[in-house]
């Protein structure tokens, strides 16, 4: 039996040059990789800066929806420390609530903000509302403006639809956003937003997303009936959770339900049965001691021209709608707390 073969010193020595060459090659590879990444980041940051100067840079991609990201960008650019009244909801609130009449009525002690974005369902509205209030300690009144569409598809839409850490750092800590374009980069949507912006560009080259300074973006299109809506009971549970959460925080909750669009009723709910059920269910889901419900269907009988579609009020109708809301708040005996008690 042959003894096990052992490598001689000469044989080991002969392998050293190959090992050294391998190590050297690996180091060169790592250096090239690091330099390439740095060059890429410099080019990427420069490209973002150029797009920003041209007014073509989309908002940082915190969510997968352009108009939500644009609302976060709007909030990022505001001083939010004094906000004491908050409007929440989806696009029914974003498009239909002009807070300037509130500011004129209540005076300099009121610092309102329409923080509603778009394309949300009630479970997502609840998540977003809680996120806002965790960072806005002076808010004493929350105005929720809803339509039936907000109460659909809660079971099939993710509740936590964005990273709270990323959003908080960007919106409230005013952190730089360049890394978000890398972390959440979506080539197709980014390219589309650069070439064909979903949000209209203003005369000054900036996004004309919020024309009033408080977060409202009016809608001007001609009335459209659009699709039917089926309510989801999960949405009512989410609304009830919002109400209880606000009550624990000592925040007044004012819920406004938009009136129905006549053409939508005629096509999908000719007897108005489902519309009445929706309004009754919402009222039932809320504790009267915790929330005030203003149902515009009980007082307003608008025609189709009042709307752009069943979920949005036309910009020409918003002034009268806001006056109606102010009157109803006063009639309900609600006193807005303008300064948080120390």
Q: Give the topology string: H per helix, E per strand.
A: HHEHHEHEHHHHEHHEEEH
The assigned structural class equals alpha/beta
Overall radius of gyration: 27 Å
Mean pLDDT across every amino acid position:
85
Can you describe what's shown?
With 342 residues, this protein is α/β, with parallel strands linked by helices. The protein has a domain of 236 residues: Rossmann fold (3-Layer(aba) Sandwich), CATH 3.40.50. It is built from twelve helices and seven strands. The strands form two sheets. A five-stranded parallel sheet has the order 2-1-3-4-5, sandwiched between helices. A two-stranded antiparallel sheet has the order 6-7. Strand 6 and strand 7 form a beta hairpin. Helix 5 packs parallel to helix 9. It is globular.
Label this structure with key terms:
12 helices, single chain, 5-stranded parallel sheet, two-stranded antiparallel sheet, alpha/beta, 342 residues, Rossmann fold
Short description:
The protein has 342 residues and is α/β, with parallel strands linked by helices. It is 46% helix and 8% strand.
Spell out the blueprint of helices and strands.
Blueprint: H1 9-53, H2 66-76, E1 85-88, H3 91-96, H4 100-106, E2 112-114, H5 122-135, E3 141-146, H6 164-171, H7 178-183, H8 187-195, H9 233-249, E4 252-257, H10 262-268, H11 273-285, E5 291-295, E6 307-309, E7 312-313, H12 318-331
Parallel strand pairs: 1-2, 1-3, 3-4, 4-5
Antiparallel strand pairs: 6-7
Helix pairs in contact: 5-9
């Amino acid at each position: 039996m042959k003894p096990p073969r052992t490598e001689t010193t000469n044989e080991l020595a002969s392998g050293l040059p190959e090992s050294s060459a391998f190590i050297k090659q690996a180091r060169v590879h790592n250096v090239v990789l690091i330099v390439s990444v740095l060059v890429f980041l410099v080019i990427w940051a420069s490209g973002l800066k150029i797009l920003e100067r041209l007014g073509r840079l989309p908002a940082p991609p915190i969510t997968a929806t352009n108009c939500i990201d644009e609302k976060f960008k709007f909030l990022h650019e505001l001083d939010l420390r004094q906000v004491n009244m908050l409007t929440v909801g989806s696009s029914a609130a974003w498009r239909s609530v002009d807070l300037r009449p509130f500011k004129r009525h209540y005076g300099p002690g009121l610092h309102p903000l329409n923080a509603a974005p778009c394309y949300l369902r009630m479970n997502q509205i609840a998540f977003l509302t809680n996120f806002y209030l965790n960072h806005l300690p002076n808010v004493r009144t929350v105005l929720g403006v809803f339509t039936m569409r907000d109460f659909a598809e809660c079971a099939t839409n993710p509740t936590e639809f964005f990273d709270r850490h990323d959003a908080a750092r960007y919106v409230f800590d005013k952190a730089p956003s360049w890394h978000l374009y890398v972390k959440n980069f979506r080539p197709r949507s980014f390219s589309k937003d650069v070439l064909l912006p979903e949000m209209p560009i203003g005369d000054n080259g900036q996004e004309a997303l919020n024309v009033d300074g408080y977060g409202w973006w009016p809608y001007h299109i001609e009335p459209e009936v659009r699709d039917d809506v089926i309510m989801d009971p999960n949405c009512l549970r989410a609304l009830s959770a919002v109400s209880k959460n606000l009550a624990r925080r000592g925040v007044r909750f004012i819920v406004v339900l938009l009136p129905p669009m006549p053409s939508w009723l005629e096509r999908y709910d000719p007897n108005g049965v489902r519309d009445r059920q929706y309004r009754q269910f919402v009222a039932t889901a809320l504790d009267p001691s915790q929330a005030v419900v203003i149902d515009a269907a009980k007082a307003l009988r608008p025609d189709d021209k009042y709307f752009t579609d069943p979920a949005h009020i036309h910009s020409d109708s918003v002034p009268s709608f806001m006056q109606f809301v102010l009157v109803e708040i006063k009639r309900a005996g609600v006193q807005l707390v303008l300064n948080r008690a120390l």
